[in-house]
Each structure stands twice: as structure tokens, then as C-alpha cells.
Specification:
- It is built from eight helices and 22 strands.
- It is an alpha+beta fold.
- The protein has a 16-stranded antiparallel β-sheet that branches. A two-stranded antiparallel ribbon has the order 17-18. Strands 19-20 form a two-stranded antiparallel ribbon.
- Helix 5 packs across helix 6, helix 6 packs parallel to helix 8 and helix 7 packs antiparallel against helix 8.
Amino acid sequence: MTTQEAVSPTRAGAGQGYPEIGDHGLIGDLQTAALVSTDGVIDWFCAPRFDSPSVFASLLDHQRGGHFRIGCATPSTTKQLYFPNSAVLMTRFMTGDGVGEVLDFMPLDDPQKASDRHRIVRVIRTVRGSMRFALHCAPRFDYGRGRHEVAMTDAGAVFFIDGTALTLHTPIKLEHDGQDVRAEFTLQQGQAEVVVLDSGPRVMPRPVSRPEVLEMAQTTIDHWQSWIRRSTYQGRWREFVHRSAITLRLLTYAPTGALVAAPTAGLPEQVGGGRNWDYRFTWIRDASFTIYAMIGLGFVDEAAAFLLWLNDRIVDHVGTDSGPLKIMNRVDGSSDLKEEALEHLEGYRGSRPVRIGNGAADQLQLDIYGEAMDSVYQAHRNGIRVGNRGWTHLRSITDWLCVNWDRPDEGIWETRGGRQNFTYGRLMSWVALDRVVRIARD
């Protein structure tokens, strides 16, 4: 999404309290991510990782899920866009009285090092005329199953539960409202306020200066623009290709190099239907195609990091019915993806059940071996060579595939009604064997 424009009504009248799934921007820090709707609501955020329990999940239940809204207090027309070549998001609110903006981003302190602390920075400002803003922070820990306490100070608020905390640093005067905090304030042209949401160990709110926040914003913009400059793509669709590349990187868990299929869980394939899966894990298939795209754009470091993660999964050999590789793992490589239905959540626009975990993790999907071997081959062609240790692991997979390529499987569609003879799995098994032969010739 480069730009989105919409009229911002009250949510009660917008799709029974739910925005369109496409009416969101994505921000992240390469360990987790948040969705920000075009009306200024963070309605999905998990911490400290993509696959951690949610803090805000009103995308799955607008009453029980939790959210963090900063937006115009009156009906407005909104427009959402990114700063060029970055993951810094701007939501603009336009009324007859003025134009206001909320700038959202997540600073990247040391993305390669796994951390329990993650920050969302929200800068509110009026660029023309006058605008009255409304703030409502309503976290609901553990997918809305936990009940937290709130501590207020002059510098913000702390929401805490069982050693987990969410700290709101802001000079805005907040009002305690049960489990939530609220505020309404007016900003004239040129005025700005700052809110920093700090998830992790419990800390006390502190004053956050405007220069400090502006420095964080510039550092974040510089990081993303520096990264995208490594792209080798020079075609006519450069803006769209680069926006797609940034989005793919936002789905990367930098400490291990793994890529999640999506930052969300429980969203329906069809509104009102029951196929509402959790996609916050690393599918061999999806990640392999992503790496193929990254290599094509010149991002070989990201490809190398994922292939190291993949090699570790081959060594783990935790698959049973799935063969030597499981079709998906968590971003840290662990394989416990027990599926659970969150019956207390109503689901996006009533789409039940909301599921976390994924019961398809032990399925046999033969096509993943073709996609994995093709990504290894493409990396090999682009200078990421397969060493002796890696070749030993590829041989073990190839030996297994030579025996098992014609077995019935659940296939790319992850059917749950029994295995079938899918042509796609057998075609991709041939791809795997073909790519290994090519690597062997080299």
C-alpha cells in the first residue's frame, strides 16, 4: 500500500466496527509489526515477536481485542501514505477547519539481536488550520484474555500484567478510564505532540522531547532508504517493486533470518467462513519464493540469512509425517505450533473461529522440497555457494525424496480431509531433483 484515501466514519458504522483489511499500513522493526488503519487505529500488534500473544487485536474483535487510536475527533477525510522508500507511515486527516497528521513508525535499535522491548512512536501534528484529536489506548493482553492494571503519572501511563507491561510516554494529559486511558486535545497549525508506546519490561513513563523523537524518525527513515538503495532493479515499476520489497522485509525476523507468511492471525479467507488460519510462521514455500524475489532485486544478505535458517531446520530433522522438513516453523525455528481456537473473540466481521497456532504443521506437502531446492539453487547461482556441510544435508533430503516423491500428500492447499495424489507436489519434486543435479554439476 502506497496511498489509501477514505472517509473516516465512526467505526460502529463501518463494516460492523471493522475497517477493510486493505485499509491498513504496516510498520515494524524486523522482529514484530503493527497494523495502522486509515482512521489512525492500531488494531493489530503482537509483542515481543510476530507470533507472540496480541496486545491490540480489535481487527479480530472490535470490542474485546484492544486498540490504540489517535485520530481526528470529528468526521474527516483521511489519506495514508509512506515517506518515500521507508516504513514510516503518515495518516492525514482533513476537515473544513484544518489538516492534521499522525506519523507512525517503529525504531530499529539492533534488529539482529532478539529483544523483549519494542517501541511504537506516534507523532501528532496540525499542518494547517486547527484540529481536535482524540486518543484512546485500550490494550488487551494475551488475545484479550488477560486483565491488566493501570498506573498513571504526569508523563504517561503504565499498563501491566504478570511481568508484562506497556508504557505510554507522553506529555498529553491522560484520563484513566477503567482499563483504558483517553484524551482529547486541540492543536493549532505548527503544533505537535508525541506519544511513545514501549512494550516490554515495566518502566516508568518519562518525558520524551520533540528533538529526540525527530532524531528517531530520521534514523528510521535513513535505515530504510539506505537498505532500499541496495536494490539492483531499474525497471519502470521501481516505486511499486521497492514498496513490495520493503513490505517483504517488514515480515523478516532479523535475529534468525526467517520470514513470516503474514503478520496476522485469524483473518478469514472469506468473510463469514471458517478458514481463519494463523500465518505468523515461516512456511518453507512462502519464504523460498520471497528469497527468490529478494535475490532478483540484489538483496543477497537476506537470502543468505534465510538459507542458514533453512539449513538448521534440515539439521533439526524434526519432521515426522512431513518428511525431513516441516512445512512451517516458528521464527526461532521451534516446531510447536499447536492449534487453538479463541472462542471468546468474534472474529473479523463475525468470521469464527479465530485460530492461533496451526494444525497443518505436520502435513506432508511434497512441493516444499522443490521450492526450497530452487531457492538454494538461485542463491548458488548468485554467489551464495553450497559448502561441503550444506551439500551433505541436501543429499540427505534428495535421498529421501527419491523414495517418497510419489506419495499422496495434503498439497499446497493444506487439505484436512485426507491425502491425495496432487500433480503439483510431483512436479515440484522433479524441480527439487533437477536443481540438486545442477548444483552437483557445479
